[in-house]
Amino acid sequence: MNVLMLNGSPHRNGNTALALREMEAIFAQQGVTTEILHIGGQDIRSCIACGGCAKTGRCVFEDAVNAAALKFAACDGLVVASPVYYAGANPTLTAFLTRLFYSTSFDKTMKVGAAVVCARRGGLSATFDELNKFFTISGMPVASSQYWNSIHGRLPGEAAQDAEGLQTMRTLARNMTFLMKSIALGKEAYGLPETEPRQSTHFIR
């Protein structure tokens, strides 16, 4: 089992990273390997809807998105973590995720996804909902914890004082591990769910 973890904060060692490290320790105990990619501080442009990825299988912009796509294809689970910006995720991270999910054609079905959010005070649940939509449009089961996957802190390191938030991260890592292992056993015994030809409609036909 291996999990790809995306730090959407521009601060490599801030509170968002602290939450990921809390999960990483539990994953290690469970025999799950991890890799953290620091996305929030990179120069990531947004999707321009050019359609180039449909022809080449990769985004036309050569940056962290294409490098991460190979790791995403190989992982069993994806953790996406972000600080809260005006009750939403870091725009650099959402630009990255939009291009990552849209430009990759490999089957994401049954890869486990988990969103983690960090804030001084509010906007956590709205950001949590925003990030989960990347998983649920892609057939990815969403891992949950004992509470919404959130932690509080403003100054670097303050999240270490959030005992409930840290416990939420540890519980999330354990639940995610169980879900990934259960899905692996289910695939081996039963295969993936049956799929139908895609019906794609819009409101004028």
Automatic annotation (TrEMBL):
Region forming the signal peptide: none
Keyword RNA-binding found: no
The organism's place on the tree of life at top rank: Bacteria
Xref: InterPro entries: Flavoprotein-like_sf, FMN_Rdtase-like_dom, ISF_SsuE-like
Ranges of residues in domain NADPH-dependent FMN reductase-like: 1-149
Record SUPFAM superfamilies: Flavoproteins (SSF52218)
Keyword annotations: Flavoprotein, FMN
One matching Pfam family: FMN_red
Protein name, as recorded: Flavodoxin family protein
Species per Swiss-Prot/TrEMBL record: Ruthenibacterium intestinale
